[in-house]
């Protein structure tokens, strides 16, 4: 912020005006960043982060050791959460699973905005490819 000489006879009024303008600009910039980040749900895969879900009632699953080795509906038999569009989930990593869903063989370790994290079929993520570029193997 550039320094502007106070030519007003009322320094308190000038200070309130400058403070309001600075706070307003900061709030708008922050809101633009937050909205811009949420709106671009990594539609073409750019690594770990938030991705949109396009379906309704998508199960997030957990289970034992084989669930982590070969994620699938039968190895990850415990449903710990459920998400629906237009929600987003935080994707940590991805794994070639023990089951393909919709022709997509990959499963994601995700955390929803509420509740437990777990495995979710990559098929339900709003992404242009099955494999999400930049997201590491689990």
Question: Describe the biggest sheet?
Answer: 4 strands, antiparallel
Enumerate how many helices there are, as a single number: 2
**N-to-C order of helices and strands:** HEEHEEEE
For the CA atoms, what is the radius of gyration? 22 Å
Mean pLDDT: 78
Low-confidence stretches: 1-42
Strand content: 25-35%
The number of distinct β-strands equals 6
User: How far is the first residue's CA from the last residue's CA?
Assistant: 45 Å
Shape: globular
Question: What does this molecule look like?
Answer:
The model is unreliable at 1-42 (pLDDT under 50). By secondary structure, this protein is α+β, with helices and mostly antiparallel strands. The strands form two sheets. It has a four-stranded antiparallel β-sheet with strand order 1-4-5-6. The chain is built from two helices and six strands. It starts with 10 loop residues before the first helix and ends in a 17-residue tail after the last strand.
């Amino acid at each position: 912020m550039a320094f502007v000489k106070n030519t007003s006879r009322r320094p308190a009024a000038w200070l309130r005006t400058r403070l309001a303008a600075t706070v307003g600009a900061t709030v708008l910039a922050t809101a633009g960043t937050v909205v811009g980040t949420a709106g671009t749900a990594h539609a073409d895969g750019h690594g770990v982060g938030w991705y949109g879900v396009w379906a309704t009632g998508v199960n997030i699953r957990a289970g034992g050791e084989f669930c982590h080795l070969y994620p699938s509906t039968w190895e990850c038999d415990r449903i710990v959460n459920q998400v629906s569009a237009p929600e987003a989930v935080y994707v940590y990593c991805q794994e070639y699973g023990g089951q393909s869903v919709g022709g997509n063989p990959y499963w994601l370790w995700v955390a929803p905005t509420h509740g437990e994290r777990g495995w979710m079929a990559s098929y339900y993520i709003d992404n242009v490819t099955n494999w999400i570029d930049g997201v590491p193997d689990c």
